[in-house]
Design brief:
Layout: E1 2-8, E2 11-16, E3 26-36, H1 38-45, E4 55-56, E5 60-68, E6 80-83, H2 93-96, E7 122-126, E8 130-132, H3 138-157, E9 167-171, H4 177-187, E10 191-196, H5 199-208, E11 212-215, H6 220-228, E12 235-240, H7 245-254, E13 255-263, E14 289-290, H8 297-308, E15 316-320, H9 324-333, E16 339-343
Parallel strand pairs: 9-10, 9-12, 10-11, 12-13, 13-14, 15-16
Antiparallel strand pairs: 1-2, 1-4, 3-5, 3-7, 3-16, 5-6, 6-8
Helix pairs in contact: 3-4, 3-8, 4-5
Length: about 350
């Protein structure tokens, strides 16, 4: 079968490999769609030894059950499914609570991370990773497994502060940010302020439910402050889906005392914490900073339910498997609108 594999750090190859088999407790999927994620770029850019090679990338997967392995019940050939990509140890305190995204033994383990992923015609996955999607388009189902799940989990972490009459600033209206706007609009009554450098992304945010939009730039903090109030008031929640230094500086400058900053993006910025009495604090008092990671299987089920109800839809740009390299190059340049999805 055809597959796209990282054969060495930074090296992505289109190759032919044997079709995997469904082992005990596993299911072989015919891949229908795979989301291309910035995390894949971080995997490619990681130093030697951090991730196994060769490795088939792709952790946002939707497909059709082809065959089931020994001991698998509840799934049949032809079932259409989404794949929960995380594989925790199954034994630690977090995993036993169903919080495999907080596994204390395997910090970053899963499909397309520590074992072969979905950038291929077929992929074998543990049956426990599957959730049904019914007749949903597979190009819509695949992004739900990360681009939908991660912002949903972030919103859940901030749920106590997202009360009617509060405000939430969403920085970065890309693959995850445009989903976050919809999740906030569908599950809260907060005022949503969207921030991005791209006018087209801001236009999309407005159509998806943002109440105000602000173009990122030198005066962005002042413009956001006009909407959310002056210190110690401000945004009750800030979701940063970029994570670069300028966006983190914006986040800490617009969050309210007692608000919350959630850092989701992986662009390499830092957020210093300095509670000094004789200097302005780098982060307001009583303002926790969280770093969400993916989400739980239960949350993914809720994300799929939102999509089935028509309240969550990914803005997708599709590429054939043969153009996976081009998709990643476009993603690295910032030329992808919404979510890039590979269709094997």
């Amino acid at each position: 079968m055809r597959a796209v594999r990282m054969t060495a750090p930074g090296v992505l190859e289109h190759t032919e490999v044997p079709t995997p088999e469904a082992g005990p407790g596993e299911v072989l999927l015919r891949v229908g769609a795979v989301g291309a994620c910035h995390s894949d770029l971080h995997i490619l850019d990681a130093p030697p030894g951090v991730f196994p090679t060769p490795l088939t990338l792709g952790h946002e997967i939707a497909g059709t059950v082809d065959t089931v392995g020994a001991g698998v019940d509840g799934w049949s050939p032809g079932d259409r499914v989404a794949v929960y990509g995380i594989i925790g140890c199954g034994r630690c305190r977090a995993c036993l609570r169903g919080e495999e995204n907080r596994c204390r033994v395997i910090p970053v383990g899963g499909i397309g991370l520590s074992r072969d992923g979905g950038l291929a015609e077929y992929v074998s996955v543990p049956a426990s990773r599957l959730l049904p999607v019914g007749d949903m388009e597979l190009t819509q189902a695949a992004p739900l497994t990360d681009a939908g799940l991660t912002p949903y989990h972030a919103v859940e972490l901030a749920r106590a502060r997202l009360r009617p009459g509060t405000s939430c600033v969403v920085i970065g209206i890309g693959g995850l940010g445009h989903m976050a706007v919809q999740i906030l609009a569908a599950t809260t009554a907060v005022r949503i302020v969207a921030v991005d450098t791209n006018p087209a992304a801001l236009d999309l945010a407005g159509r998806l439910g943002a109440h105000q939009v602000v173009q990122a730039g030198p005066d962005a903090v002042d413009r956001i402050r006009e909407l959310v109030g002056s210190p110690p008031d401000g945004a009750d929640v800030v979701l940063d889906f970029v994570g670069a230094q300028p966006t983190l500086d914006t986040a800490r400058q617009v969050v309210a005392t007692g608000g919350q900053v959630l850092l989701v993006g992986l662009a390499g910025g830092t957020l210093p914490v300095r509670p000094v009495a004789d200097e302005p604090p780098t982060v307001p008092m009583e303002a926790p900073v969280s770093v969400p990671f993916w989400g739980t299987r239960a949350e993914l089920r809720e994300v799929i339910a939102l999509a089935h109800d028509g309240r969550l839809r990914a803005d997708v740009q599709t590429f054939p498997l043969a153009q996976t390299s081009e998709a990643y190059e476009a993603l690295r340049r910032g030329d992808v609108h919404g979510r890039a999805v590979i269709v094997p």
